[in-house]
Amino acid sequence: MNLIAAVDKNWAIGLRNELLVKIPADQRQFREKTEGHVVVMGRRTLESFPGGRPLKNRTNIVLTGNRNCQAEGCIIVHSTDELAQKLKNYPSEEVFVIGGERVYRELLDWCDVAYITKIDKSFEADTFFPNLDQREDWVRESGPEPEEQVYFDLIYHFLTYRRNRKK
Length: 167
Fold this sequence. Notes:
Number of strands: 12
Radius of gyration: 15 Å
Order of helices and strands: EEEHEHEEHEHEEEEE
Low-confidence stretches: none
CATH class: Alpha Beta
Mean pLDDT: 95
Largest sheet: 9 strands, mixed
Distance between the termini: 18 Å
């Protein structure tokens, strides 16, 4: 499975159920990586989408403890056990965890690849992604230094982390 997120210097991902910043190239990468695949999210992440509607051209799975949650066009699951059963129907490499904080933390150990847009700025935030740089079981892909990207005054990089299951 995969994780995908845009994070700031402190691994922050959001404030009041909104993204910290919307960078067109990041949104394009998100769409290109997830279209035609499965996205797993929490209820609040779904609610943050325009009209609270699921993402088009994807299988949307919502992991929530809220038994009253209903969302047209989504598969609703209420536990990680139930999620595991649903995910048996899909190749692991086609599943993307897209947030929020609780879902990232719950499913981090299920994943092998993380696509991270790292923004070189700190924002006010109330939700965070696990800091993969501080985890021994995750390593940033080596190779040439990722090309610096710029959007107005924001500098960011597209990074890929891989889980080292030998640790």
